[in-house]
Amino acid sequence: MSAAFLQVRGLTRRWTPAAKPVFENVSFALERGEFVCIIGHSGCGKTTILNILAGLDEASAGEVIMDGREVSGPSLDRGVVFQGHALMPWLTVRRNIAFAVKSRWPDWNREKIGAHCQKYIDLVRLTGNEEKKPSALSGGMKQRVGIARAFAIQPKMLLLDEPFGALDALTRGAIQDELTSICAETRQTVFMITHDVDEAILLADKILLMTNGPQARIAEIVVNTLPRVRSRHDIHHHPHYYRLRNHLVDFLVHRSKLLQEGRDDESTDGQQPRVVMPGLADPGIAPGEAGERLPALKQVK
pTM for the complete prediction? Predict the structure, then answer.
């Protein structure tokens, strides 16, 4: 069996040697082309994990292997989109994207860079706004530029830190739809932080559930059993939807604290998070009780 595209093994982060770790023994894997969301309460270390995957922070213990190579610093192989758009305010939409493209392919001429940038401007539906500066754009448009810039460097993995958290509901929904379409077209591997259960169900192939911090860990890997092609308008009609949603909400409001305190009967054995498919559970089973281990799914060794 071939190794997973991304392997995270035994990741631990503490701010000082004597301090309790923010999280510990975090292990999971992503396959190439997979979209994975991570959910947990504030303070459990989600953004720190993303920063370690990006090479912007170092773990106190453990390792991250991407495409057979250890992650040891920032790289254009990993694109990052933060909640803030992080655009250069003195540059236009086109030049913000071109800056990243020139960093990726310094030998490209102006025409090739321009054509490449235009492809991704069109992809995020910003055609006609190429020469506008960020001050002339709405919040949603700025975030679209950030997404276009990240996709334009064609990273092996895209890291998203609550990229839609500051947007209104209508704009957020529209960009979610665009992201779904782009990922389907490019087969992009994505790791995304979100606090929005419905967003995770719409976008993700797998959802990682973290216990409360400190000493947080990944308690469960929830497999999304909904059909891969999904629509915000009718996803709630699928029979798996509410089973899956109830399981996630029950974890966040109840079981995450019990697991962190070691008072949940379903605590994981060893260091491996259990893999569950609550969407396939019998409707009579309560949330949190659909935790059969699934040995056929790839686990981090």
Answer: 0.86
